[in-house]
Amino acid sequence: MSDNQSNLESLSRIQILVFMGVTAVIFLLIAQIWHRAGSIALIPVQFTVSAIITGILLGIGVLLASAVLSKFWTPYRVSAEKYMNLIVSPLIIPDLIWVGLLPGLSEELLFRGVMIPAFGYGYGAIAISSILFGVLHLSDAQNWHYVLWATIIGSIFGYSAYATDNLLVPIIAHILVNFSSSLIWKLNQNRQLQ
Fold first, then answer.
1. Residues with Cβ < 8 Å from 9, sequence gap 6 or more?
2. Fewer Cβ neighbours under 10 Å: the N or C end of the chain?
3. What is the pLDDT of residues 182-192, one digit of tens each?
4. Which region, left, alpha or beta, applies to residue 120 given φ > 0 means left and ψ of -120 to 50 means alpha?
5. What is the three-class DSSP state of 75?
6. Which pTM value belongs to this model?
């Protein structure tokens, strides 16, 4: 284990929360600067019942697919466990609201809301934003399984924004996936410690 990996694994609750907050602010600033400097028309956020339901169903689908993948693909399960241990382990259950909200809002605005229109608002743009989203989840070289799955989820979220022309759909799905998967993992971890 490298010193860098050891340092990452020993992050405190406050360090994780500050890191998430700073990252969210940076992503929001990049999105706003890119949007304004490039005169990019953002994918709109439209609060409709169908968008909310679609986002919830999409989030549930991703959660179920992740559970199946974790059950049958051991390298992915190990990679996901490592990632969750790094990010979620130091947190307490109320902190998980931020695990859902901060990335769900800031990452969707940047990776789907700005990048897809900036790169041409088509399948190629979805692919580019998805690959960049996947790379964002790289914590070390052995974590490529998790990165691959994040890339696939990014393409699903990207396509949902593109198909509905509503950024609210992937925002809701992303928040639901992050919060629920973190909560399930944390509750299982707490159960194992008892």
1. 85, 86
2. C
3. 999 999 988 88
4. left
5. helix
6. 0.91
